[in-house]
Amino acid sequence: MKQGWRIKPLGELLEKTETVNPLKSAGTEFNYIDVSSVSNQTFCIEATQRLKGKDAPSRARRLVRANDILFATVRPTLQRIAIVPDELDNQVCSTGYFVLRPKPEMNHRFVFYSLFTESFMDQMATLQKGASYPAVTDGEVRAQLLAFPSPLEQQRIVGILDEAFDGIATAKANAEKNLQNARALFKSYLQSVFIQRGEGWVVAKLEDLCHKITDGTHVTPSYTKEGIPFLSVKNLTKGFIDFSDTRYISLEEHELLTKRWKPVRDDILYTKVGTTGVAQVVDVDTSFSIFVSVALLKPKHDVVFNSYLEHFLNAPFAREQARKRTRGMANKNLVIADIKEIEIHYPRSLRDQRAIVAKLELLSAETQRLESIYQQKLAALEALKKSLLHRAFSGQL
């Protein structure tokens, strides 16, 4: 550690904070900061609730002051961390936060940045307990050791981090915008291709383009440690059939389930429960079964090119049809009868369909290349933040 730096438990560097019971002032209004108020993207308090004391929830008990630091102790690794701005001075936050009020010799932004270091977050990940709502205690946060220099040196380090992180935030916002633009461009092209009805184009219902539209078993099978993959919606939403996270059933049960209709290469799988309206061509020869959450489409290959139909079903025009036909709120479900009614636009010529797919796949490959570049930039910016924080809190800035 750099000469002149000291190490103390975080709790020894903080002043005591106050608790309050808004119910005792039933008619007094206050701004309430709950755990969802803090963004773990901007690290700011983005929204509060204006409440009267009589309406205060039981967790509204911690009084906050300007420049206090809020650290959510529930799911601490999500980094819901923020500094209380002047306009929220003397307001109330949830007991789901640990409130850090640095002593005068501690720069509050220096303490704020320390909560993002890998060493601190690693400790939070180790200490958190609970399955549904993993959390750490205030005492465990207080016990964390913090290395710190003189107030003047803290101010210098904070100045460097503020400037660097502002630049990183701008670069990150630009990269994310470019990433969104690349995806939007591909979606826009998909929309423009498929909603047209040029010469030689036909409009038909999906059932008219398939020999059969059915779904998987409605009975939960007996799972085995190994055997035949048993696919559900989660295996079809990544742009390919994901066999890395599947359950398995026995060969005997697979043969029983697929006795009438068996998924084979060039068929199309279509999600119908939860995330509805996602299509995926079967491009493997692997044997597998499907659950009721997945529909099986057997296209008429002399009428429609399967990859054309896959692209069409994944385009905004068809996805919107699927959304409108999806039933239920908590348990979203797209029934077979409604799937059959989805309207498809296509050129009668298979050659024209293949030509469209070729263009789409070229554009898709370019979009994926751009996405990869922007994702790498975002990862590099995150790595730079971690590196700067490590250097800052090890006395290397």
Short description:
This protein has 397 residues and is an alpha+beta fold. The chain has 9 helices and 19 strands. Helices cover 35% and strands 19% of the residues.
Characterise this structure.
The protein has helices at residues 108-114, 118-127, 138-142, 151-194, 251-257, 306-314, 316-325, 336-339, 350-392; strands at 6-9, 29-33, 49-52, 60-64, 69-72, 81-83, 91-94, 97-100, 145-148, 201-205, 210-215, 223-224, 228-231, 247-249, 268-271, 279-281, 289-290, 294-299, 343-347. With 397 residues, the chain is α+β, with helices and mostly antiparallel strands. The protein folds into three domains: 6-148, DNA methylase specificity domains (Adenine-n6-DNA-methyltransferase TaqI, Chain A, domain 2, Alpha-Beta Complex); 153-196 and 349-397; 201-347, Alpha-Beta Complex (Adenine-n6-DNA-methyltransferase TaqI, Chain A, domain 2). A four-stranded mixed beta sheet has the order 3-2-7-4, with no helix packed on it. β5 (69-72) and β6 form a beta hairpin. The longest helix has 44 residues, at 151-194. It is elongated, with a radius of gyration of 28 Å. It starts with 5 loop residues before the first strand and ends in a 5-residue tail after the last helix.
